[in-house]
Amino acid sequence: MLKVKILNIDSGGKPFVFLNDKDADELNITASERVTVQTKKKITAIVNISSIIERGYLGVTDEVRKILSLKENNKIHLDIAPFPKSLQFIRNKLSGKKLLYPEIHEIIQDLVDGNLSENEIAAFVTALHIDKLDLDEATSLSRAMVDTGKTLSINKKIIIDKHSIGGVPGDKTTLLVVPIIASEGFTIPKTSSRAITSAAGTADRAEILMPVEFTTNSMLRILKKSNGCIVWGGAIELAPADDIFVKTEFSLHIDPLLLPSIMSKKKAVGATHLVVDIPTGRGAKMKTTGEADLLARDIMELGRRLGIHTHCIVTFGEQPIGNTVGPALEAKEALEVLMNQKNIPDLIDKACNIAGSMFELLGKKNGYSLAKKILESGKAEQKMREIIKVQGGNPFILPEDISIGKYSLHVRSEKSGQVLWMENRIIVEIGRASGAPKDKGAGIVFNKKIGDSVEKDELLFTVHAEQLYKIDRVKYVISTQAPIGVGKKSDMLIHTITESPVVERTFEIDR
To answer: Which architecture characterizes domain 86-132 according to CATH?
Structure first.
């Protein structure tokens, strides 16, 4: 019997407890072992051992306190818990064995319940990366991730959604696609991520215009009123296992769960139809159209197995989309395009290709032309303002109402020629150095992109920041790495290597 010590610590969703080292020796409990903590209720928690905790006390995190309704000095029973069955299934995967649905479901359930340690989750993710994930296991993972979370029950026969596998900065197309699709009466429940490795996630961009954190019931209310929404997926507990996996994938810089991550979220919102954008080329996740086509094949087959009619489009991914990178700058640019104030050819073309493919998937003809007509007519702007209002934003917001960082750095070309290439990874690094996405007004505005003619000393791009010292961070990044290559068409040299280089590969995991 031990007494409760309330630690007022949030452990990020996992039930952790803290035990004095001498009490742990006496009870024969080791660090990271599982224990059952029991009052009137009982839970399984993972033990941390510390001499800071007084003997006779058990330190509990907020998660354990809330689940068991504990108060300071409450008496509790502590016992060693059996290891979860899922650990044996993880060991089987580490040995190269293929897992069946019941085994995968057991792993995912323990993951969501907080019964697996960080090391055990990392072992499972690493095993999936090394042994590769076949379509049978991807299907089982997708279904298990849906079954262990909440789902949306939208009373519609057709529910359309879109997704991009990411890797390209400045991708604000969702802010155009959602209102284009919703304006035609189709339901599009768009859940989006915040930035993890990028300078802005779709939820970060949308939040400039309106609130994005809602419950599932609130999301349904929004959809009923406007057909479309753009909400942060992390607030609605759809396929919660994915959010846990993403943290581990990010720390390891691997992404073996790309397919089930995408498809479980789409299945959870009830999507019947889906278009997936696969950016391809230098600096993107997919380097060649061949790689992109193979990924598309797997996505479409997984969609078929899950009952989601899926198409993919392969898009140009060798430079930012539009002329801006950073939450406020991107929201401003999207609003300017919706209002027909600015013509941003690549942004408009990509948005209309995605929306057009979605229309054609739903049986409409000449989808691209229809999407372009909706954008040019102002219907998309009208629908976007309706969505903004229903989500609690200002429906009369104008581009000039959006605040941009007051400090700036102008980067000019050192020679004449044309822009030959842009390096997405370095552009993202500059954006994050400027303060994005946390500093909403930070980011980059491009004056030149691939193929554009450039004179010596002409402005290539401007970096904005909300804090002056972050401009110095940007200067350092630019001094060590070139984000844009300017030269003549005939220039064949990219750079010279005189010592063994440290190669940084593009890694993006924003969902």
So the answer is: Up-down Bundle (1.20)
